[in-house]
Write a structure and sequence with these properties.
Largest sheet: 5 strands, mixed
Pfam family, one: ThiS
Organism: Caldicellulosiruptor morganii
Protein name: Sulfur carrier protein ThiS
Shape: globular
Order of helices and strands: EEHEEE
Strand content: 35-45%
Number of helices: 1
Number of strands: 5
InterPro entries: Beta-grasp_dom_sf, Mopterin_synth/thiamin_S_b, Thi_S, ThiS/MoaD-like
Distance between the termini: 44 Å
Helix content: 10-25%
Length: about 70
């Protein structure tokens, strides 16, 4: 398996896979996240097929409840 270098929320990491695999690997609940890749929003229905590429910049925003 080839490992790629991507940037996730301003932190470099080695990863090879889809957006969904990335979220699960960093223990985030996909139901409470929004994801942008290189500044473009990626729809949730594309996460399981959207394969990240070397040099991609991924922004993950998690929604939290509170008051």
């Amino acid at each position: 398996m080839i490992t790629l270098l991507i940037r996730v929320n301003d932190r470099e990491m080695e990863f090879c896979g889809t957006i969904m695999e990335l979220l699960l690997s960093v223990n985030l609940n996909p139901e409470t996240c929004a994801v942008l890749v290189n500044g473009e929003i990626v729809k949730k229905n594309e996460w399981e097929s959207f394969v990240l590429k070397d040099g991609d910049y991924v922004e993950i925003v998690s929604f939290v409840g509170g008051g």
